[in-house]
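Build the 3D complex.
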Amino acid sequence: MVNRSKVTIHDIASRAGVGVGTVSRVLNDHPNVSPKAKAAVRAAIAELGYRPSSAAKTLRTNRTHVLGFITDTIASTPYAGQITRGAQATAWQYGKILLLVNSEGDVTLENAAVETMLDRQVEGIIYATMYHRAVTPPASIKAVPSVLLDCFDVEHALPSVVPDDRRGGYRATEILIERGHRRIGYLNQEDPIVARTLRMEGCRAALADHGIAFDDALVAYGNSDPDGGYAAMRDLLGRGVSLTAVFCFNDRMAMGAYDAIREYGLKVPRDIAVIGYDNQELIAASLRPSLSTMELPHYAMGVWAVRYLLEEQPPSTNGPIQAKLECPFVERQSL
Amino acid sequence: MVNRSKVTIHDIASRAGVGVGTVSRVLNDHPNVSPKAKAAVRAAIAELGYRPSSAAKTLRTNRTHVLGFITDTIASTPYAGQITRGAQATAWQYGKILLLVNSEGDVTLENAAVETMLDRQVEGIIYATMYHRAVTPPASIKAVPSVLLDCFDVEHALPSVVPDDRRGGYRATEILIERGHRRIGYLNQEDPIVARTLRMEGCRAALADHGIAFDDALVAYGNSDPDGGYAAMRDLLGRGVSLTAVFCFNDRMAMGAYDAIREYGLKVPRDIAVIGYDNQELIAASLRPSLSTMELPHYAMGVWAVRYLLEEQPPSTNGPIQAKLECPFVERQSL
DNA sequence: CTGTTAGCGCTTTCAG
DNA sequence: CTGAAAGCGCTAACAG
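Done.
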C-alpha cells in the first residue's frame, strides 16, 4: 500500500511493536536483531509504504552519497555522453549518485555550481571538459576531494585524468610504419591545442625511432573539421609529393580528407591509407571505407575519475596524480 | 577565511551577538530584520566561512530543489547531450539541480533509480529516451510529478513531450514540392518505429494535399544508418525510375545516399536534391554539400519538460498533456 | 537483543 | 524587530 503522507520510523516502530532503534537497525542491516523483530519491521514497512528520508539520514550521518559532476559543454559532441556514462555507471556501482551541472564555460555559473554542491555536501567533485586542455576550476572545488577529467590545471595542484595523446600519436604512426608506409602525410589542426602538440610529438618520435626523417613537406594544416581536412588534404596532394598514407589529427578532418582523395581519383586505402583520431563512431564507422582510428578513452576516463574519488588514494609522492589513459587503436578498413 | 569543521547557525548567532532565529531570517531574506543585525550576521558568516546545510534545511522545509533525470542511453548519440543540456539549463534557471541516472535500458536499475530519487525527495522526475518511442516507466515514478521526454506510455497516463514527426514529415515533403519537385523518392528505415510511421504519414499527406499521387516505386527501405541509406539509394536508382529529390528517414541514411548518388555519376543537389531528418550536426554540417534537414528539437524538449514540472500545470481536460514540439527546417546546400 | 534518549542544523511559531 | 523553544526523521550510544 502506498501512503503519500510522510511515514516515519516511529510509525513503523509502533506498527511493528518495537522501538525506533530496532527499526533503524533492520534498516541498516545491523547484526543483532531477532528474526522475529526483523520480520515484523519488514512487514510494517511494506504495509505502510515507508520510505526513509535521506535528508534526515544525511543530517545525522553527514554522508550524502552524492558526487558533483561539472561539465563545460555537454552538448557539442557525443563524447560528453561517454564521459558522463562512464562516471555515472561507476558511481552507481559504489552506491553513489551524480549531481549534474553543465556550465557551458560560464565561470560565474561554475562557481555557483561548486557552491551549491558544497552546500549539498557532495562527497567529491568531477570537473570534466570535452577536449584535452588546461583549466582553472573554481578554487572552492578543493573543499572536497576533486578530480579533473580530460583537463588539468596548470599548477597540477589537482589530480587529473587525460588521454595519452602523445602515446596515441606514436602508436598511430608506428602502425602505419609497421604496414610498410614510409612516406606518411600528417593533416594537422591549426590551433596549437594540447592534443595537437602531444600527438605531433608522438608522431615525430615514432618516425625517429624507425629511422624515418621527418619531412615538413608532408604536413599540412587546417581547421579541425571536415572542411579543414578537405582543404589540408588538397593542399598536400597538390604539392605533388609522394605519400602512401596520411595520419589525420582527428576523424572529422579525415572525413574531409576522404573527399579530397576521391576528387584526386585516388582510393582509400589502395592508394592512400588513412588513420584518424578520436574514434568518433558516428563518423568513423560510417565513412566508406570505414575509418581506422585511435580511440579517445572517454568512458574509461569517466570510470577512472569516479574510482579515484571513491577508492583509497595512495599517498602521493610528488603532487596529485596526473593519469594518462591509453588511446586504443580501432581497426577498420582505411589502411 | 575558510573553516573546514562544520560551522553552524549557532556559531554565527553567537559571533554576531544575535539569536539563531535572526540568523535564519537574514539567510532567507526575511523582511523584518534590523540593518544592524543583518550586517553583523553577514560579517560573521563571511568570517567563519559558514555554509548552510541543505540536508538540515530539507529536513525542516521538506523541499530539496532537486529533480531526477533518468535516461535510457545517454551515450550513443549527441542527442542525449542536447536533451540533458536543455533540461539542466532550465532547471538551473529555476534554482533546481538535476540528479542523473542513466539506466542503459536496464529495468531493475531503472526501478532502483526511481526509488533512490524518491528517497531523496526529488521534486519531480524526467524520464528521457533517445528516440521517440513507447515506454513503460517504473510505476513508482507517479509518486512525484513526472514527465516523459521523447517517449510516451501507451496509456498516455503520464504527461509527455515528443517531436512532431508527422508534421516534420509533412513539412519536409512540402518544402521539396515548393521547390518544384514532383518525383520525390523516400528512403525509409525498415524498422516500423514511431518516427517512421509518423514521418511517412506526414509525407503522404503532403503529397496528397498537393495533388501528387503516392508512388510505391519511389520508396526504398534500409537500415537507419549510412550503409542502409547507401543500399536503399542504390536500390532506388537501380530501378530506373525518374526522380529529382529524395527525402531520407534520417541524416545517417542521407550520408549513405550521398555515396550512392555519387557512384551513379549524379550530383547533389543538381541532379538529386536531398533532405534528411534529425539535424545530426556532426553529419549534416559536414557532408559535401552540407545537408538540409529537419531538426529534432532535443534541447527544446529538455526545456519543455523541466518547465512543465516546475510551472503551474493547467487543469487537464482529458488526461495528461501529450506535447508535440515542432521539428524546424534547417536549410543547408543539398536542395 | 532492544527501548530510550540525545542530538545532527535548520526554520518557524510564539512571546515578548 | 528578536530570542527561545520545538521539532523535521534519523542514527548511535547507553542502559538494560
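DSSP finds twelve helices and twelve strands in chain B.
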